[in-house]
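Researcher: Quick test of sequence recovery. Tokens follow.
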């Protein structure tokens, strides 16, 4: 019996390690998701639209070359881009982790007299429907492991329109994320879509306010 007891701490330790290996990733990603949700819900808890009601300029400038049909706005926030897509004839799904953002997006859609299908989901764990969208839009959100899923979500011939901050944004001291996990390296966005037909790519400083990479590419 005593011989057996001396193994108990090791058995517990092995159990903990196995538990972490089998479950750990899910537990930590749902914990991270919860943190994101709390952070963004708080940020959006204002009457005003913190990112405004007008779409991202890059989307506005290129709306005419996007194939009409079903569009998904990834991390759509308060809906400025989703509503613009709907105004331009798209059948729009919009997803965000923040319920507050989703409610504001639906209010904006109502104000602009369009319909969007807006839903709350954590993109860290979301299962993207395959071959579903003619357009996927992603603005100011970077989750590298989501990119293959976005590609799968597009129909053949479907188009991705993507713009977000580069590391230069932080280096220049512009407003935006400071964590490099959320900042693109030079050519990184372009390299993600090497297997697509790249229609447009740039890395620029916009209005001396933000440094971004912008891409349009077709599956
Ligand atoms: C900088 S905002 C951009 C919002 C919008 N794309 C725009 O351009 O106005 C980033 C958005 O990502 C959302 N977000 C952060 N983590 C997320 C997650 N794990 N799943 C879904 N959305 C998330 C936030 O709620 C927030 O709305």
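Model:
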């Amino acid at each position: 019996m005593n011989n057996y007891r001396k193994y108990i701490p090791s058995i517990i330790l092995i159990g903990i390690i196995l538990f972490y290996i089998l479950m750990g990733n899910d537990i930590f990603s749902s914990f991270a998701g919860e943190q994101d949700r709390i952070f963004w819900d708080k940020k959006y808890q204002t009457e005003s639209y913190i990112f405004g009601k007008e779409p991202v300029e890059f989307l506005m400038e290129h709306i005419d070359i996007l194939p009409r049909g079903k569009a998904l706005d990834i991390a759509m926030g308060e809906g400025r881009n989703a509503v613009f897509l709907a105004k331009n004839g798209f059948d729009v799904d919009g997803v965000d982790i923040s319920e507050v953002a989703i409610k504001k997006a639906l209010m904006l859609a109502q104000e602009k007299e369009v319909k969007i299908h807006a839903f709350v989901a954590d993109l860290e764990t979301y299962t993207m429907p395959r071959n579903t969208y003619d357009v996927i839009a992603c603005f100011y959100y970077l989750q590298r492991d989501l990119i293959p899923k976005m590609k799968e979500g597009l129909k053949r011939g479907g188009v991705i329109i993507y713009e977000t901050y580069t590391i230069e944004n932080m280096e220049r001291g512009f407003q935006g994320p400071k964590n490099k996990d959320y900042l693109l390296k030079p050519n990184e966005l372009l390299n993600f879509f090497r297997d697509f037909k790249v229609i447009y790519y740039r890395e620029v400083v916009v209005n001396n306010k933000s440094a971004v990479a912008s891409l349009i590419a077709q599956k």
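Residues 19-28 have pLDDT under 50 and may be disordered.
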